[in-house]
Amino acid sequence: MKIVIFAPHPDDELVGAGGSILKWMDEGNRVEIIYISDGRAAYTFEKRMDHLIETEKTQISEDDLAGIRMKEIDKVIKFLEIPQESIHKFKIPDQEVMDFQETGIEMCKPIINDANRIVAPSNNNAHKDHQATFNIASTAAKELNLKDIEFYIYALYVSIDAPKEKQVKIDIKNYNDKVYQALQLYDSQKVISTVKASFERMKKKKRERFGVFKLEDLGKYKNF
Predict the structure, then answer these.
(1) What pLDDT is stored for residue 153 in this prediction?
(2) How far separated are the first and last CA of the chain, in Å rounded?
(3) What is the second-level CATH architecture of the domain 2-217?
(4) At what angle do helices 62-80 and 12-26 cross, to 10 degrees?
């Protein structure tokens, strides 16, 4: 099975579905990850939200931060033993993904065309990059008419709001420690209080929950 993970920013793939990614790989599935944005605006955005723990290393340009975050991806995937050819960095400007949705749709089509499952953030998401990522993934699948593809929708900034038959919980207690170690490689993000807290929660996380949908469900549920 080919499973494609959509991450709005570097680290969202692990916070949203890290344990499941490792479990799916152990089960013999082919996992590919699409990193939509370059993460350049993290410090600018989080400073406005009063979440930034300012230090000397946060006094850098957005270009420099984008470069750091792209290199952190390489460290993470090497640690998790994900093949380099399974990683796709779209490098769309952070906090501007809504403006580049058409670009993202066309870029992801050849990657998802033969996929069996798409893993993406939820619809109706307050974070505009996460919402745009959902739009990109679902629109591309719709335009390709991937009727049989399965969507696993993860909840960041929102909760899963769907009937029980549209939900699945995946046991990740054998993987949470490795995911936590991988998150530590996103060193640039540990100066953001909310992100640092989400990393720490991974230590105790036993399950990951997803809404599970098909294209025919699009528009019928809050998350999809």
Answers:
(1) 98
(2) 22
(3) 3-Layer(aba) Sandwich (3.40)
(4) 20
